[in-house]
Design brief:
- The complex is a heterodimer of chains A (816) and B (359).
- With 816 residues, chain A is an alpha+beta fold.
- Helix content of chain A is 25%, strand content 27%.
- In chain A, the strands form ten sheets. Chain A has a seven-stranded mixed sheet. In chain A, strands 11, 13, 14, 21, 22 and 23 form a six-stranded mixed sheet that branches. Chain A has a five-stranded antiparallel sheet with strand order 5-4-3-6-9.
- Chain A is elongated.
- Chain A starts with a strand and ends with a strand.
- The radius of gyration of chain B is 44 Å and the shape is rod-shaped.
- Chain B folds into two domains: 94 residues; 232 residues, Bira Bifunctional Protein, Domain 2 (BirA Bifunctional Protein, domain 2, 2-Layer Sandwich), CATH 3.30.930.
- Chain B has 359 residues and is an alpha+beta fold.
- In chain B, strand 6 and strand 7 form a beta hairpin.
- The two termini of chain B are 79 Å apart.
- In chain B, the strands form two sheets. Chain B has a seven-stranded mixed sheet, with helices on both faces. Chain B has a two-stranded antiparallel sheet with strand order 2-3.
- Classes of the chains: A alpha+beta (816), B alpha+beta (359).
- Chains A and B meet through helix 8, helix 11, helix 13, helix 14 and strand 27 of A and helix 5, strand 1, strand 4, strand 5 and helix 8 of B.
């Protein structure tokens, strides 16, 4: 909302201290987003006429210009070429300080002294045009008297000094969508008197009720409507002062009738709509529901369909989407306006209009909001109706319209006596109980009832003491429909008391301590482990294109976004792999591909019954350093498992979506339940993602973090370390390729029993001496007892058992 | 020299032995001096002092002398042995010192030639910021709560005092999902639904923060990204006041941003809090003196807060006459942006390793 200071001053004697006003507005929650100071810096800019233009020797960009300043001629040097002799231009005199702060001094350019500067619109802060000098008039002979050389520019252009505050108004402050409402709040905070008079009208017969009819058929959509007739209207441009105020407030002047309607809306917050009475069939109005499919061409020239949704959802019949739109129709039933949004083009005020029907109404906020949203049509009026206008402010708006139009019209204008009014229910003012103790309990203050009343009354609340119990009865002004509860009144007290005047304290929990959960702690640990392994954390989008899932072999349906920004972001990810591959490609194309990346983030799956999608947090890592591949991914997985102290987690070879068919494994818990995948990304997937480097192998793992962290943990009890010498048994077995090393290891581990200190697969060999289809696996098992040194015969027996069991169970052969 | 002679030659007599001792001493001294390595020295030492040395042979002969002579020769023998021992020791020190020096020189390394083969990875700036914020609040006695990113309309809007068609819903552009009734399932637009979940759990009092990802249908630009992180705070206890809210915000601000950074509250509107406020902090760029970032006001906006609205308490079944509370929320990216002066927030989602590795 753009608010000129001069307009605010119509209602209270504000001074010109812009900083104080800005701070006060901010403290009231009327956030000032910008302050424009108009006419400042133009004090020493005058109108001048160009007398002569001469080139300057040795300069091809600047010229010597002789101007008539009204008090003699003066020479200036100018770099603009868009003017000629006889043009009227603005001259900033030596010593002038322009709006941007630029100070004009006498300067010598190419040997010519420049005494001042001819200015562009931008330099003067009057327009965005910086392309040349602002030419005020092309013809100095036929010039208007205001363009006499030497006239101050401000005077010549009718620029008054003013300040415009650009205020952002929160949705709970409908009263602040008006100049008077802002003035009321501001005056109260600054302890200044606020006056808003009810206009007195000189009315004549016939009365409005004889000239027009009014029928309220939709009382649930519109609970009050008022019309009044003006005769002898002459449609003409508005006077300068009104056009200027509208422009400052951000509205374009159109003609006196429309401008007065807009002016009243800006001033009082109540939209009104003027109709050409002679264009209304039957000379009157109806308020009713739109017939489904009814059409209206609105003032903006767009034809709009009402009472029905134009684009029903797939599979629905159009008739099934009938909606409630409130329309204004003429007495014959022809629709002439969308209630609260915009009037129709056919009945708009035109130069030939002479009888005006002014209409003001109070519409149901929710209904306006729905219609505005569906039509994609937000107007100055709809914004105000949506948030809640003053149902009792209608009378004032109509009266203000009439008095204002009369004040700028000739004596031919006649205001028909009285109004035509329809209302669906009598207005009962909201009266709330306010408990002073509750106010202090919520705010942490110690205000008295008197303090509270003195904060509320200046903003229109009436406060009285109820009988004896200390409670206050607060009558809410009708322009504050947002205040419906005690807490709303408490907020008003806090706002006018000033948040900065409330003593700051800090509550400390008495019965709990602060901590992160064990899940959160372990998730931090997982992140630290991966970064310790050289992986940096990425953050990729939760949104993917549907093809991204297919590209990594995920064929299930993903969760679809109903209103995606783009098709490429139209589904929710089911895996972190596509996003990480994208991130890798981004870096590869910048020659930064030797990296490791990881991400912690949610993935999403449709619910089997189509209801709320399922989501879970996953951890994934991509290994793309030189030499990385499946090995790096598996090593990282094992380090992670070890760091988290997980027990019974193992790898099971498998063909998995997106993974290299012979270099992938499921990560499973002790019961075989899947926790995630690990291995190498399928080269075919890499080519689908256009990876610029062909030879690179990419290791990858992805785990369900919650499942991983809920697996069993190894004991946290300390294990005593043996003080006796340990003994190693090295065993090399030839094992078929289809038997995983982990299986052999598991047999050895089990048979080794409690004396086993450690087991390590320290050599894998394929080649000469080993039959094809198998490889040699060499394990080193280290044994020690806590109470003795193992004897040779004990060790020999162990060795025999290990060999026998392994040979028997996995068909391994001891390599001799 | 007959050094390898193992048989005892008799009757050389005292003088003969003394002569021989002198001769042995001289020869042995030369042998020790000739050694050029520790190994050669050890061999020489064995030769001159070992069991098979001439010295040992003389020692055996001494036994056959008369007591008088035995004493004299014995004394001389000990002198010679001690002197040779001493020579060996000295020579050994010299040699080992030299050998160590040679070895050390041979092993010389330029340690600045070394670059790490495995650099540490880096946590994402948003993660680091979030963890630090969590830690500040944990220090103030808060728990850290989390909630789903997919929410229903009820949790995201309705329970937060925004019934369907409420004008305030326009404050958030929402992504809806194809699930259930149209526009009933969505990606949360703020972390506030976690408040609702916490309060529905019903374990009062509550002192919690809830960090997490949020989604808004905004076109990405330097100051907005459609997916971003918020941290939400919720306190519900008996006797919680607006003054408590203001004091808590101030404590957090100084703890996280530093002692010279303060906070102030300005009236604002949120459907789920009343009274509501926007909170601003001292501009971290100019520490309040005024600069371009803060439009010369000395303050920058950080987030929103307020007292939990009674309508929200009523939606979750908490008695607002007995319990009161406050909530606040702000952007994690915004904190990171202010502290690290990030010109364009999109850098956070590009995953350029050169950006990630700075933190």
């Amino acid at each position: 909302m753009r608010v000129p200071l001069s307009w605010l001053k119509d209602f209270a004697p504000f001074n010109d201290d812009v900083t104080l006003l800005t701070d006060t507005l901010n403290d009231l929650g009327l956030v000032v987003e910008g302050v424009e100071k108009l006419g400042e810096g133009l004090e020493d800019v005058v109108v001048a006429t160009v007398l002569e233009i001469h080139p300057i020797k040795g300069a091809d960009k600047i010229r010597r210009v002789l101007v008539d300043t009204g008090s003699g001629s003066q020479e200036v040097v100018c770099g603009a070429w868009n003017f000629e002799t006889g043009d009227v231009v603005p001259l900033a005199k030596v010593g002038a300080r322009l709006p941007g702060g630029f100070e004009i001094s006498s300067r010598k350019l190419k040997g010519v002294v420049s005494n001042g500067m001819l200015c562009s619109g931008k330099e003067l802060g009057l327009s965005e045009d910086a392309s040349g000098i602002m030419v005020l008039s092309k013809d100095s002979t036929a010039r208007e008297s205001r363009m006499v050389p030497g006239t101050p520019l401000r005077e010549a252009l009718g620029i008054e000094k003013d300040v415009v505050f650009d205020i952002s108004v929160d949705v709970n402050r409908p009263d602040a969508l008006s100049i008077s409402g802002i003035a009321r709040d501001l005056a109260a905070k600054l302890h200044l008197p606020f006056t808003l008079e009810f206009p007195q009208l000189h009315e004549s017969l016939p009365s409005s009720i004889e000239l027009t009819t009014l029928d309220l058929q939709a009382p649930d959509l519109c609970d009050r409507i008022l019309t009044k007739v003006l005769i002898g209207v002459r449609v003409a441009p508005s006077p300068q002062w009104m056009a200027r105020r509208l422009l400052l407030a951000g509205m374009r002047p159109i003609n006196n009738v429309v401008d007065v309607s807009n002016y009243v809306m800006l001033e009082l917050g109540q939209p009104t709509h003027p109709y050409d009475l002679d264009l209304l069939g039957g000379g009157g109005l109806q308020v009713r529901r739109a017939h489904p499919g009814e059409k209206l061409r609105t003032l903006d020239g767009v034809e709009r369909t009402l009472g029905r949704v134009d684009h029903p959802r797939l599979g629905e019949k159009p008739e099934s989407r009938v909606v409630d739109d409130c329309v204004i129709a003429d007495a014959t039933g022809r629709v002439v306006g969308i209630g609260g949004l915009m009037g129709g083009a056919d009945t708009e005020i035109s130069p030939s209009t002479s009888r005006v029907l002014i209409e003001a109404a109070h519409f149901a906020p929710m209904a306006i909001a729905r219609t505005a949203k569906r039509l994609g049509l937000r107007t100055e009026a709809s914004v105000r109706f949506e948030r809640g206008c003053d149902p009792e402010g209608i009378d004032r708006a109509v009266a203000r319209f009439c008095s204002l139009l009369a004040s700028i019209s000739g004596p031919e204008l006649v205001i028909a006596a009285g109004v035509v009014e329809r209302r669906s229910r009598p207005l009962e003012p909201t009266v709330l109980s306010l408990r002073p103790a509750r106010v202090n309990a919520i705010l942490g203050t110690s205000l008295t009832s008197v303090d509270m009343a003195s904060l509320l009354e200046p903003i229109g609340f009436q406060v009285s003491e109820a009988d004896g119990d200390g409670q206050l009865q607060v009558t809410v002004p009708t322009f504050r429909p947002d205040c419906t509860r005690e807490i709303d009144v408490i907020e008003e007290i806090a706002r006018h008391l000033g948040y900065e005047n409330i003593q700051r304290t800090r509550p400390v929990p008495k019965s709990s301590i602060g901590r992160i959960s064990s899940y959160q702690r372990e998730r931090r640990k997982a992140r630290e482990v991966l970064s310790g392994l050289g992986a940096s954390e990425a953050w990729t989008s939760s949104f993917l294109a549907p093809e991204d899932h297919l590209a990594v072999g995920l064929e299930k349906d993903a969760v679809r976004v109903s209103n995606p920004m783009t098709r490429d972001e139209s589904v929710l990810r089911m895996s972190l792999l596509p996003g990480l591959l994208r991130a890798l490609r981004y870096n590869l194309t910048r020659r930064l591909g030797s990296i490791r990346l990881f991400e912690v983030g949610n993935v999403f799956f449709p619910a089997p019954d189509g209801s709320i999608p399922l989501e879970r947090e996953q951890l994934a890592a991509l290994f793309s350093k030189d030499g990385d591949g499946a090995r790096a991914a598996v090593e990282a997985t094992l380090v992670l498992i070890e760091a988290l102290g997980l027990e019974g987690v193992s790898l099971v070879a498998d063909q998995l979506p997106g993974m290299h068919p012979t270099r992938g494994a499921r990560i499973v818990d002790a019961r075989g339940a899947r926790l995630g995948v690990v291995g190498e990304v399928d080269p075919m997937v890499l080519s689908r993602f256009d990876m610029p480097i062909k030879e690179r192998r990419i290791g990858f793992f992805e785990v369900d973090l919650a499942a991983l962290l809920s697996t069993e943990r190894r004991t946290r009890l300390a294990r005593e370390v043996s003080r006796f010498p340990s003994t190693d048994i090295d065993l090399a077995f030839v094992v078929n390729e289809d038997i995983p090393a982990a299986t052999v290891g598991a047999v050895l581990r089990r048979e080794a029993g409690e004396l086993l200190e450690s087991i390590e697969l320290f050599d894998v060999y394929r080649g000469v001496g080993i039959r094809p289809g198998s490889r040699s696996l060499t394990f080193r098992l280290r044994f020690a007892a806590n109470d003795r040194t193992l004897t040779d015969s004990e060790v020999a027996a162990l060795r025999q058992r290990l060999i026998a069991k392994t040979e028997a169970e996995v068909g391994a052969q001891l390599r001799s | 020299m007959i050094m390898e002679n193992s048989t005892v030659e008799r009757s050389r007599g005292k003088d003969g032995l003394l002569d021989e001792l002198s001769q042995v001493e001289e020869e042995a001294s030369r042998a020790i001096a000739r050694a050029t390595s520790s190994k050669a020295l050890a061999e020489a030492a064995t030769l001159v002092l070992g069991k098979r040395s001439a010295l040992s042979a003389i020692h055996r002969e001494v036994a056959s002398l008369e007591p008088e002579e035995r004493k004299e020769v014995g004394q001389r023998l000990n002198e010679v042995r001690e002197r040779l021992d001493e020579l060996v020791t000295q020579k050994r020190e010299v040699l080992s010192a030299r050998e160590r020096e040679e070895q050390i020189e041979a092993e010389r390394m330029d340690l600045t030639e070394i670059t790490p083969s495995l650099l540490r990875g880096h946590l994402h700036l948003v993660t680091l910021t979030q963890m630090e914020l969590e830690d500040v609040f944990v220090g103030m006695g808060y728990q850290v709560a989390e909630g789903p990113e997919v929410e229903t309309d009820w949790y995201n809007f309705e329970a937060l005092n925004m019934p369907p068609d409420h004008p305030a819903r326009g404050m958030w552009d929402t992504f809806y999902l194809d699930a259930g009734e149209p526009e009933s399932v969505l990606l949360r637009t703020h972390t506030s639904p976690v408040q609702i979940r916490l309060m529905l759990e019903g374990r009062l009092p509550i002192y919690a923060v809830a960090p997490g990802k949020c989604y808004r249908r905004d076109t990405a630009d330097a100051r907005h990204i459609p997916v971003f992180h918020q941290i939400e705070g919720l306190v519900v206890d008996e006797g919680i006041t607006f003054g408590d809210l203001a004091g808590t915000i101030e404590t957090f601000t100084t703890a996280y941003f530093g002692p010279q950074i303060h906070s102030r509250l300005r009236p604002s509107y949120f459907p789920f809090t009343e009274p509501s406020a926007e909170f601003e902090i001292t501009c971290t760029i100019c520490t309040g003196r005024g600069c371009r970032t803060c439009s010369d006001t000395g303050w920058v906006e950080l987030g929103g807060c307020g007292m939990v609205d009674p309508a929200v308490f009523s939606a979750v079944g908490i008695d607002s006459e007995r319990w009161s509370g406050f909530a606040f929320g702000f952007g994690i990216e915004r904190c990171a942006q202010m502290r690290h002066q990030i010109a364009d927030l999109r850098a956070l989602i590009e995953n350029d390793i050169r950006f990630l590795e700075q933190f």
